[in-house]
């Protein structure tokens, strides 16, 4: 049946219209081709076509990776195949069954690289995909790549190598758009920025202006930790706890006593610290987590000792409470690090600076310091990412991988504590769980 009331003249769209249109709906061109614009701003080329007497819709990718001219060319080719009795939809489904990301890179670049006259650009395209994307996405079928998979590629470098990460995202988007056009995947492009990754990652312009969190250099860790241990006050204790657990400031400041399970209870206060933490766990409810998912933190003997040393305020549920019993402010923890930096400067030293930006380290940057330490000590990537409460793997992988490696993480965090204290006799064991 023909489309009554929706047909438009052939080639009725323009490249400018495709670039600027924001009105949700279907905007028709010719040969059954139309641009679908979603309420969130996402755009997709779709072709209505009759294949062997059956009405079908084919996704042809998304702009700007697929231009209006490219979409028209593909629509015309599909129409020609269908008129000759072919089935472009079946061809795409068959092709989608086996193509991996690494194979897609080779196939795509064989065509794409010819567009660049600049040899530097050709090398950068391949280098960024090979260096950053392939270790995570390489063996995955392009049909199975999700938003979380793309985030696993981008998040480790989004703050520290923003321009590279920005270009890499665009290259992954283009590659997956090509894969969709070629029939190797269907659905939304997981690397799309607007209305997709833009809702999860900070804007590149914001990060690029230096809003990333300065981290503590690994070589400064022992000196910084010794200086921190010499400070009194509940904010200093909160900063110690934050560092030892690699948690976010808000998670620590909002922690309540009922979230903590000390495991083997010490009823008289005389048991050795080591026996208090064999199974001590801090469970952060989903409502307080950035990712909206419950997170367990393995508490080491040193962390338990900090908790046991803290006073409690009647009527306040918070572990680290403000003077009036409410939640400790973020500025209180930041002020501890700021005063530590000021003390260093007064002593004639440069202080504790981020090795890249040369700016004073801040509490949130300690998570980056921990992540760098875990990587350099050879700890399994997923285990370190779980410790930071980052999403790991695709939705399917997470459905099958139910373990959060709690006990293995407990040993890793004990070694992290040893590194902070510069305990050489423990530091030599940091490779044992790699």
UniProtKB/TrEMBL annotation:
Residues 211-413 form the Tyr recombinase domain. SUPFAM superfamilies: DNA breaking-rejoining enzymes. GO terms for molecular function: DNA binding. It comes from the Bacteria. Residues 99-180 form the Core-binding (CB) domain. Keywords: DNA integration, DNA recombination, DNA-binding. This is Integrase. It comes from Sedimentitalea nanhaiensis.
């Amino acid at each position: 049946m023909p489309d009554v009331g929706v047909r438009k003249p052939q080639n009725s769209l323009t490249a400018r219209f495709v670039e600027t249109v924001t009105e949700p709906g279907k905007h028709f061109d010719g040969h059954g081709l139309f641009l679908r614009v979603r309420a969130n701003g996402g755009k997709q080329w779709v072709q209505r076509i009759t294949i062997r007497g059956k009405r079908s819709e084919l996704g042809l990718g998304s702009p700007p990776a697929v231009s209006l001219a490219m979409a028209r060319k593909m629509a015309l080719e599909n129409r020609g195949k269908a008129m000759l009795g072919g089935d472009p939809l079946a061809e795409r489904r068959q092709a989608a069954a086996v193509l991996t990301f690494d194979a897609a890179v080779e196939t795509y670049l064989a065509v794409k690289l010819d567009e660049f006259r600049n040899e530097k650009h050709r090398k950068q395209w391949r280098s960024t995909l090979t260096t950053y994307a392939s270790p995570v996405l390489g063996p995955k079928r392009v049909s199975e790549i999700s938003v979380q998979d793309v985030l696993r590629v981008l998040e480790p470098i989004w703050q520290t190598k923003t321009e590279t990460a920005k270009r890499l995202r665009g290259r992954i988007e283009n590659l997956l758009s090509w894969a969709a056009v070629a029939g190797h995947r269907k659905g939304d492009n997981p690397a799309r920025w607007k209305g997709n990754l833009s809702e999860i990652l900070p804007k590149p312009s914001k990060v690029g202006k230096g809003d990333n969190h300065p981290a503590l250099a690994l070589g400064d860790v022992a000196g910084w930790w010794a200086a921190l241990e010499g400070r009194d006050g509940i904010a200093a204790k909160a900063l110690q706890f934050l560092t030892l657990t690699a948690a976010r400031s808000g998670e620590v400041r909002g922690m309540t006593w009922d979230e903590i399970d000390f495991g083997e209870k010490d009823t008289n206060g005389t048991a050795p610290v080591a026996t208090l933490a064999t199974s001590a766990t801090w469970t952060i409810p989903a409502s307080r987590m950035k990712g909206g998912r419950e997170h367990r933190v393995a508490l080491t003997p040193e962390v338990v000792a900090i908790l046991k040393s803290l006073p409690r305020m009647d009527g306040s549920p918070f572990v680290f409470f403000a003077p009036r019993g409410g939640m400790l402010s973020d500025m209180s923890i930041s002020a501890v690090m700021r005063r530590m930096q000021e003390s260093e400067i007064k002593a004639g030293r440069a202080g504790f600076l981020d090795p890249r930006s040369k700016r004073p380290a801040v509490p949130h940057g300690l998570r980056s310091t921990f992540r760098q330490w875990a990587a350099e000590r050879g700890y399994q990537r997923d285990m370190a990412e779980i410790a930071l409460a980052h999403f790991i793997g695709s939705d399917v992988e997470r459905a099958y991988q139910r373990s959060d490696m709690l006990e293995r993480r407990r040993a890793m965090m004990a070694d992290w504590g040893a590194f902070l204290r510069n305990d050489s006799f423990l530091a030599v064991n940091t490779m044992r769980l790699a």
